[in-house]
Amino acid sequence: MTANSSLQADLGLQPCLFVLFGATGDLTRRKIVPALFDLSLQGLLPPGFAIISFARRDKDNATYREDLCAALREFAPHLPADGDEWREFANHITYVRSELDDAEGYERLAKHMQQIDSERNLQGNALFYLATPPENFSEIISHLGKAGLNRATNTDGWRRIVIEKPFGVDLDSARALNAELSSVFDESQIFRIDHYLGKETVQNILVLRFANSIFEPLFNKNYIDHVEITVAETLGVEGRGNYFEQSGITRDIVQNHGLQVLTLIAMEPPMALTADDIRDEKVKVLNSIRRFTPQEVSRWTVRGQYGPGTITNGHDEEVPGYRQEPGVHPRSNTETFAAFRFSIDNWRWAGVPFFVQAGKRLQKRLTEVQIYFKPAPEVLFARLSYGQLQPNKLVLRIQPDEGASLQISSKTPGPEMHIQPVQMDFRYGSAFDVPIRDAYERLIIDAMRGDASLFARNDEVEAAWQLITPILQAWHDIACPRFPNYPAGSNGPEAARELLNRGVIAHSSP
Ligand code: BG6
Fold first, then answer.
1. Which atom of ligand 1 is nearest to the CA of 249?
2. Ligand 1 centre distance from Cα of residue 206 (Å)
């Protein structure tokens, strides 16, 4: 593997072994291996880095490496899967075949880890990465503990565990998983992934707020009217019907990605940029969001499910409805769209509605935060017919077209006083001459150097479930809307627009 020793040193990367569970799964093929290979091409992997993949399927090193190479060609065609760099990288990937619940397999894993560690001088350091379906988490955690793999045998060595989402399906299951993890690993060893936090644009929310003196003084109830957070995808469930039937969009996106973005927008400045200082502030926001009563769930949430329709992704494509997707029950009531109006009951945000909506098979792929400022006083321009005075709006474009824009009112050129909104725009693409890397690259590096700032802490995950679980329960108990209620390729259910209008009006009226 290529090494860039000055960068490695800057990043504080120590030698380590990467032990991958879920080694033949979709996430490994689509995200983890491309991210690791790209890091290797940039010289950003630690010295001696090696990968051990642990999985059930009957493979040997050669066939497994060949499979990963095919995955790279399919999912990361921009990376040189056929060159010497790949062969060099793949040479340090080995495969251990075992059932996930077979104690003997973990003994073999332990021996293999020791052997590679001494060959490559890895000093006992190892990162376990759980990219399996969540139903396997418990058995893997417990076997790692029983095999003594949760602690390095030498005193300086470290062991860490990265655990993929979904982290539980409700508050009880998240608590149970946290308890299992903490019976084997210390919290400082645990890295709960929410890949949204690895996105440059999500990290930039803190920079935008706290490194610019012009925004932060305005981020409160005195100046902000309401906030809209949207995670819209054109994708459907992409062959994950079985999983999605259990999760729905609320567990899949809102409980994690949506709420993470909300906390970054709403949190107080942390004391310092340490993992715990940042996460302390995020937890306070989550705990300040008003819990819904069942009546409020009916009033302030919307559920949707897509029917058949047309998606335009360069060309028109007829797509089936959710109920026609493989693995989905033909009368499924699982939501593929959800919208919420949250209230944050703290001094900074009291009375400012936060709308969060997420959906599959919508018209456009777009994740963004729209921050609407209060209108300028109606003293000079608004009463005159010089044009429509629009409130200022700050838009943070998380993806695609990463960047931010600020809408301000401007006089149009000419002899008359006519006012029009214009945009001040910042685009990552043109401002920086470097590509934006996949979020997984940043998160893997951070886990290897032990920086948990971009990972969720136990209390943070539980606080998010504390908010979401009663909503899911109320949905279960109250009548479900008639599904499907939006065609694929549309802007989602009409009820979501009504929620927004109602929500904004309800808080603006005296
Ligand atoms: C995942 C969800 O966490 O995030 C997927 O399980 C979703 O359903 C994906 O499509 C979106 O992530 P990104 O980074 O591709 O926008």
1. 8
2. 22
